[in-house]
Amino acid sequence: MLGHRMVPLVVALLATFAHGQVYTWVDENGRKHFSSQPPVAQPNIEPVKINHGYIGEGNVAPPPPPSFSTSTNPLKASKKQMCTSAIRWTVEDIENLRNIAKQQMLAKKISAADYVEGQKNFKGIEERITFQNCITSSGMDEKRYRCLSEGLGLIVCSGLAEEAIREGMSRAQRR
């Protein structure tokens, strides 16, 4: 069944390589035929128009994906994309954490001094997590940048969440 559907495609592709004319007709049994030669004395013969660069029923082949870098090294381009994503997510995460800290302070869940200390910490994070540091990172630092690029957030990617879970489990076991 699949073979019968593939015949027109194969014939059309072969015809494009030969740069010849392709004819199609239906015989008395209702079967569709393709050939580079028109059948002798057959009514309703129609030439098939072949448009180079088109396949099937006029569907255009998709263009190649856009290049995000002029770099010839795909690994460098990939790392640049990863770093761009990591920085974008980090900026967004810091903004969200700053807003949460402000809400916590206004709700009197943290002191003003803790809020100020947190803002200093955020500033330090912004100074350390940079595109240049990401590009030159390796080992555990690169792993953390990759984590950030996936949008998992500073708390998860820095290991603070894992540390908090261990501490909580340790306290629970002591009880």
Low-confidence stretches: 9-19, 52-58
The domain count comes to 2
Q: What is the number of E strands? A: 5
Structural class given helices, strands, pairing? mainly alpha
Tell me about this structure.
- β4 (54-55) and β5 form a beta hairpin.
- This protein has helices spanning 2-18, 74-106, 112-128, 131-135, 139-149, 154-157, 160-174, and strands at 22-26, 32-35, 46-48, 54-55, 59-60.
- Residues 9-19 and 52-58 have low confidence and may be disordered.
- Helices cover 58% and strands 9% of the residues.
- The chain folds into two domains: 2-58, no CATH class; 74-174, no CATH class.
- The strands form two sheets. A three-stranded antiparallel β-sheet has the order 2-1-3, covered by helices on one side.
- By secondary structure, the chain is mainly alpha-helical.
Q: What's the layout of helices and strands?
A:
Layout: H1 2-18, E1 22-26, E2 32-35, E3 46-48, E4 54-55, E5 59-60, H2 74-106, H3 112-128, H4 131-135, H5 139-149, H6 154-157, H7 160-174
Antiparallel strand pairs: 1-2, 1-3, 4-5
Helix pairs in contact: 2-3, 2-5
Search tags:
5 strands, two-stranded antiparallel sheet, 175 residues, mainly alpha, 7 helices, 58% helix, 2 domains
Give a brief description.
Helices cover 58% and strands 9% of the residues. With 175 residues, it is mainly alpha-helical.
